[in-house]
Amino acid sequence: MSGISLTFGGDPVFSDLDLVVQPGDRVALVGRNGSGKSTLMKVMAGMIEADSGDIVVPPGKSVGYMEQDPSMEGFATLGDYASSGLEAGELYKVERASEGLKFDPSRAVETASGGERRRAALAKLMAEAPDLMLLDEPTNHLDIEAIAWLERELGAARAGFVLISHDRAFLRALTRATLWIDRGVVRRQEQGFEGFETWRDKVWEEEDQQRHKLNRLIKSEARWAVEGISARRKRNQGRVRALQALRAERASQIKRQGTAAMSLESGPKSGRKVIEASGLSKRFGDTQIVRSFDLLVQRGDRVAFVGPNGVGKTTLLNMVLGQEAPDAGTVTLGTNLEVAVFDQSRAQLDPEMSLWDSLTGDPEMRVSGKADQVMVRGQPKHVVGYLKEFLFDDQQARAAVKSLSGGEKARLLLAKLMAKPSNLLVLDEPTNDLDVETLDLLQELLDDFDGTVLLVSHDRDFLDRVATTTIAMEGNGRATVYAGGWSDYVAQRSDPQEKDEVKTKSSRPKVKQEAKPKIGLSFSEKHRLEKLPDEISRLEAEIGKLEELMSDPDLFTREPVKFQKATEALVERQEKLSAAEEEWLLLAEKSEGA
């Protein structure tokens, strides 16, 4: 690609872009949501024509693109679509890919879900095996088994590929170079995604230093220009023009987009026991979803449900939430629960509504008599101001939800979710389509969230960062509770003979047993142990201030309401301090035991 420029009637998406992809390249394409990753990939595939510039594919070389929303008009089944264009002797490739990606080639096109269509499109691309594969979020709608199959296939492929994905583990395993789109500029580094964040932070640091130097130079030259008026009648016009050029350079710099100003606020504290399930069993026809399953969820737990698509994760989740009746067993929900749900299908978003109406039309966010405001955690905010906190601009506020990218829809759903206080978060595939920075922020918010989290995800890295408990559903009614996240689950699974019986064995990441002690801290627990001392110090400082306030003997008679509130706050912080100290002791003991 040389001299590529592209605009969509506004600011340029790319300007004078030069880019080479070599045979056999394994490239991560990264950037913020809305930065132009998918657009660049479509330009590479010839699906979008650039305003100017040239794209050259050498003779005899082929480029293939995995369509996000493939048109299957004229095809009766998913298999017919996936095998179109193949020779008779190559049809086995589609059958093999359908087994690895888990879709039924005989499924009629009109009854297939969006996820099945995407998997068929991916199978078609894998079977065609072009010299360069352009893969835009290929792991969306894949379970961990299918992700691992795709990871192995791409790892063994001779073809090159450019890959957009939110799945850090997938990117780290496969890529050897990185293309980074940032404010219309595409940079390349000959290192895989593993080194991206260090590289990005270094580039931004150098940019900040250059901006600081430029600001100092402008300030110095401006002072000279002002003082020169009184010192001499005739100024150096060349130097004045240079100052104007410096100011123009500063004005032309595109400001970095900040991170979304997301925040989570717990509702009223729930009881210590959030969910207690005993002896749960559920069957649909000949399929046993779960058998004799017990679970205790306490306040502050982060519980992940993992397993192949169709194994019954959502069914079990609905049962423990009391939303679906088991065939046998009981579920007891704790007291004072306020539940907020992030659903995988984005069903809470009406594609025809504008972003503005999507928020102001929500009964729980509506402000009486104020058509331009929304209620955010008990406080009214202007709808555009709140949307800006989630990185939407003024023009997007009136745009239809259907015009948003997948990542932008996820951010809008998070905006709705985070406006309402809750103490039990239910997150169904929250990581799909989110960029790396937003994923980092979401993880930090969940770390600091005082409530409880139930999570369904196929993102192994995210599971390791967030989960304190993992429920592995492995088919035939087997649902086993493990401590820690994904890597902890893999390390703790039973004897080798039993592992061979588990269908998902080959897909899972290999974890050296000696590197993961049988007794020790999970990723989340280590993170928590590091944060607890600061939390304890903060609580002790707050208790000291409250005790100092209440030491005033006249406070009760002078300000009884303030005295009462201080008393309640003191009791609350003392309870939190006691719980934090107890948690620290348990984690420290567990760490030493390892």
Structural features, described:
The chain has about 600 residues and is an alpha/beta fold. It has 3 domains: about 1-200, Rossmann fold (3-Layer(aba) Sandwich); about 275-510, P-loop containing nucleotide triphosphate hydrolases (Rossmann fold, 3-Layer(aba) Sandwich), CATH 3.40.50; about 525-594, Orthogonal Bundle (Helix Hairpins), CATH 1.10.287. The chain has a 6-stranded mixed β-sheet with strand order 5-6-7-3-8-9, sandwiched between helices. The radius of gyration is 28 Å and the shape is globular. Mean pLDDT is about 85; it is low at about 230-235 and about 495-520.
CATH class of the largest domain: Alpha Beta
Number of strands: 21
Biggest sheet details: 6 strands, mixed
Number of helices, counting only DSSP H or I runs of 4 residues or more = 20
Question: Can you lay out the helices and strands and say which pair or pack?
Answer:
Blueprint: E1 2-7, E2 12-17, E3 26-31, H1 37-44, E4 52-54, E5 63-65, H2 78-83, H3 91-101, H4 114-128, E6 132-136, H5 144-156, E7 160-164, H6 168-174, E8 177-182, E9 185-189, H7 196-231, H8 237-252, E10 273-284, E11 287-298, E12 302-306, H9 313-320, E13 328-333, E14 339-342, H10 355-360, E15 366-367, E16 370-376, E17 379-382, H11 383-389, H12 394-397, H13 406-418, E18 424-428, H14 436-448, E19 452-456, H15 460-466, E20 469-475, E21 478-483, H16 486-492, H17 496-501, H18 523-550, H19 555-558, H20 560-593
Parallel strand pairs: 3-7, 3-8, 5-6, 6-7, 12-19, 12-20, 14-18, 18-19
Antiparallel strand pairs: 1-2, 1-4, 8-9, 10-11, 10-13, 15-16, 16-17, 20-21
Helix pairs in contact: 3-4, 7-8, 18-20
